[in-house]
Amino acid sequence: MREDRLKVEESERTEAPELMEESERTEKTPKDPSPLSEEQQHVPQRGELVLQTGGSEGQPAVGALPQGGQEGQGGQEGQGSSPDPRVEGGTETRGPPPGGPQGGVLRGPDLLGYVGIEAVLDQMRRKTMKAGFEFNIMVVGQSGLGKSTLVNTLFKSKVSRKSCSPNYEEKISKTVQLQSVSHVIEEKGVRMKLTVIDTPGFGDQINNDRCWEPVLKHVNEQYEKYLKEELRVNRQRKIPDTRVHCCIYFLPASGHWLRPIDVEFMKRLGKIVSIVPVIAKADTLTLEERTEFKQRIRQDLVANGIQVYPQKENDEDAEERLLNNTIRESIPFAVVGTDREHQVNGHRVLGRKTKWGIVEVENVAHCEFANLRDLLIRSHLEDLKQVTHDVHYETYRVQRLTAGAVHQGGPNGSDLESHL
């Protein structure tokens, strides 16, 4: 028995090295790869989009190009490569590639250095100062409400029709006749061509039926003039802009409600131009009367569906909405106009002198002229022009071109410019 055990142990010692050598050879020999389909055997060409699907842990995705995006230039596995954030747990996550066209916003800390994008503002400022800009304002209201005086006060110069006529004679026109006068105002290198359109005779007749038609006709004629110039084959590099950017509508300080003529005019004109209503000669009302009158007017505007500037649908963001809400709460502006200066506490101020004291035009405690000036010139002038072009003129253009295409008849129709 002892001899048999010795023989078995000797046989195991002899076979052990042979088994170990065979095991080592098996581990060193690579396993046969699994057969690939035609899609997996396809070699992507340069510039071809490759959808990557993750394999098992530690293995690259099938069909993925080497690091660097070019054939034959990939590094070794695990060196300098980063996992695709769209591939998680072997499942492809749909979405824009990192840094693609729909990537995030790159701000200052994300940039590698100074680019100079902010210099665009200086470029725009220089071009605007060199070319100047235009602003056309219309004043509508019956005679004696101080329309010319208020315009002169707004721009602190004699720009109204009355001020520019040396032998001007005040008389009541039999019909509404629109008259305009233009000036070039320059301040600190900025040039502005200001055009003031006056409407003498509006509301001055016994029968004021359809007295708003000449005003509506004038506004539409300016849109038509601009549209014709746009449609020319050889048009001017800069089209002269005679469109009405703003209409200041003067309400008499009656202390009651809107008159029927006021409702009918603003209801029609508010659809084609930006209207800013004001209470003229507001110093004839007490503070309590002024507050009640403003509330009644706002109620009338809402009840009759009258659109006044600024409209809520044109607010672009929360900051602008907050500013415009403050303006909407102040409409109509209770204003006082004058072109005379008086001495108050050692300073020269624009104001109207009464036996009770001096009404300072630019003092917000006395009237709301400063709010009106800020709206028209300092904060919303460019927005008034933009609303005129993007909203009112665009509405007219679409209606006009649609009507023109209908009247031309047939798919080939005549030239639209000749039709207009």
From TrEMBL:
SUPFAM superfamilies linked: P-loop containing nucleoside triphosphate hydrolases
UniProt keyword list: Cell cycle, Cell division, Cytoplasm, Cytoskeleton, GTP-binding, Nucleotide-binding
Transmembrane segments: none
Location of this chain's protein in the cell: Cytoplasm, Cytoskeleton
Bias (Basic and acidic residues) ranges: 1-31
Superkingdom per UniProt: Eukaryota
GO BP term (any one): cell division
Protein name: Septin-type G domain-containing protein
Source organism phylogeny: Eukaryota, Metazoa, Chordata, Craniata, Vertebrata
